Amino acid sequence: MIKIHKKTLQDLEFFSVLEQISDYTLTELGHNSVLGILPIADEELLKKELIYVNEYLSSFDNDNRIPNHGFDSISKEIKLLKIENTFLEVKSLQRIASISITVNTVLKFLDKFKDYYPQLYSYAKAIEFNTTIISQIDTVIDRFGEIKDDASPQLYELRQSINKVKSKINSSFSKALTTYHNLDYLDDIRESVVENKRVLAVKAMYRRKVKGAIMGGSKTGSIIYIEPETTLQYSRELNNLEYDEKEEVIKILKELTDYLRLFLPLLEDYQNFLTKLDVIGAKAKYARSMNAILPEITDDKTLFLKDAFHPLLYLTNKVKNEKTFPQTITLDNSKRIIVISGPNAGGKSITLKTVGLLQVMLQSGLLIPVHERSKVCLFDRVLSDIGDNQSIENHLSTYSYRLKQMNYFLKKVNDSTLFLIDEFGTGSDPEMGGALAEAFLEVFYDRKAFGIITTHYSNLKLLANELPHMQNANMLFNEKSLMPMFKLVVGQAGSSFTFEVAQKNGIPYSLINKAKKKIERGKVRFDATIAKLQKERSKLERTERSLRANEIKKQSEADRLEETNARIQKKLESFQELYDSNQRLIYLGQKVKDLSEKYFENKRKRDLINELFKLVQIENAKRKKMSAKQKRAQKAKEEQIKQEAKKKVDVIRKQKKAQKEKEKNKPAPPKPVLKIGDRVRMHDGKAVGNIENIEKGKAIVNYGMFTTNVSLDLLELVEKK
User: Global pTM?
Assistant: First the structure.
């Protein structure tokens, strides 16, 4: 039996979530119903409500969307039906017909797609499918909202008579109009309408000459409006007939209303059903806006929220196009309580509120924005103490209020309770407040309650470190910039970075040092150790991210290389097939050449034909029987391979040709100027000699054993003198 105080719902901003959901409703009744949502006490009912929303959410991702279920409220009509001798107007009857059509459409849809929406179908099965209401209203009212002529025999006769009288009125009026117009008694406008009656526009000077009833006059008094005497008797008859018609219509509406009174419970069911569907639809649309899901609900006390988002923060940041940081939190029987510490503005309170709000939302039949592998359990109570709760009305200070809250907690906390306390123990003397907070926390621990608290007190951090089913956690901070990283890390307490933040904000170091001396040395060392550990954890976090990124990059590179390798292997296989095919053709060509040479020598046709026939048989024995389609496919494949090979060869040829052209057009290197004493050799020789003399383009080269006279153009320089 869940019990969540209204103050807890306010602390967790649950009603703000309901406001956002109500914007997705289609009707006023649905809107009001959403604003009245509260946690559901019955576990079976809660699970059904969650499945309803989950099934509706699934309809957004398939082609079988749930039909439109918007409707106009019939609450006023239901009230009138409960009062005897009243009757419904045409508009009310149309609303009843409309709501009946809508319900029948939805019921038919859910019956058709019951495999897709089993729970919604099961819920709708209790609602009666009824077309009698619609057909009965249709016999009386047409699609334009008028009472049909054949709604009753009496009404039919009356309307026939009315039409005849109206025809007579028009005929007699037209006759009078022509007569008096010819006598020039009428104004230029000739006629007008007064009190829904056609009247003659008579010039004031001739008013006594026109017989009839005066119905009024113009503002200037120049025109008098007169109903001709010939139409007066028909008008009186028409009035009587219209009165009778009105009475007959009221009689018909009363009979129809009395008939509909028999279906009063069904109409109430219809409206409740569509209101419920509107609420379910609004919940599903809200879930879709933030990628919310229905996580696994476990019977054992395990709360594992993976990549959990605070709904209000997520949607606000989504509008601003800013990033929202998810958190992963685990509470189970081995680690029931988490103590979150660290500097302010790091996200401690948001993390605590995220857990509380998601738990309350889930237990109110709403889907939550978490990873699909998350697991949740249900708690009988959710208790919270969040924010500055100074009470002006009751003259209570923050600390007094918090003590009252703790007293309330002590009465209610048990092993099925989730408690959430922000800035635990604040509001009093740090030493005494911290000691009292520690005592409270020990009681909560002994009662096996589940909870999350945020604190700056070192004694609470130490307690969480000492007790086996409690654990420390902190919000990561960048150790250099001291900027929050908005990531919860479980297993280690967080430093408040008090002196580091003060130094970053320009407080003189001498003053900070003086402050350090005023507190116990052990506390400073304890806080410094925590700060150091946090810095190390931040470094490890960055290293882990870097390694993960490198691993992803390497994996991507390996996949790319594997894909390239597979592509090359496929091409090699294709080229191998082409090579084998060409080799076979070369072999056949050589065989045919040998046979033709043999025939050239002996001129024996029979031997030639026999040899050719054998060759064809051998080749055909190697072939597989294929259909025409398979032959075309193989031929196309071979052609494709040939084309690919040709392209490759063409590219290589072009490259070689370009290379030759480049070398051809490359300017020859300048010839060195040869001088006496240089060591040289012939262009096509290996022996090296010294130039002894140069004269008229020729040089005398001494090779040691002999000398020779050689043209300078035939020599190349080996070594300068």
Answer: 0.67
